[in-house]
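Section 3.1: Structural characterization of target chains.
Under the original work plan, the team committed to producing a structural model for every single-chain target entering the pipeline before any wet-lab resources were allocated. The record below documents one such target. The sequence was received from the expression subgroup and is listed exactly as submitted; it comprises 105 residues.
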Amino acid sequence: MFATSSIAFVAQDFFWSVKAEERKQNREKDKETFDELLKLITSDDLDFLKNHGYGDSFSNPQIKGISRFVDTWNRVEREFIDPQLEQFRKDFYRTASDYVFTMGR
C-alpha cells in the first residue's frame, strides 16, 4: 500500500512539474507574440486612431502599422496560446480590418 501511494505521489509531482513547464513555455511564446505586435503597431498608430479628427484628411502611411497588422496577423502562427489573449487578437483584428477597409487602405 505504501509503495502504491508513493508511486502515485511521485507521478502526480512529475505531472505537475511538466504542466508548470508547459505553462511557462506558453507564457514565453505569448510574450514573444505580443512583443511582435508591439513592434508592428506603435504608440504613434494608436495616438492617431485616438486623436485624429476624421473630417480632416490623412495619408495611408499614418495607418501603416494597422494596415500591416491586417495584412499579416490573420494566420495560425500569429495566434496566442492563452484563450483570452487570442480572443483579444481576433476582436482587434476584426475591428482593425473593418477600419482599414473603410478608410480605403
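The chain is about 75% helix and 0% strand.
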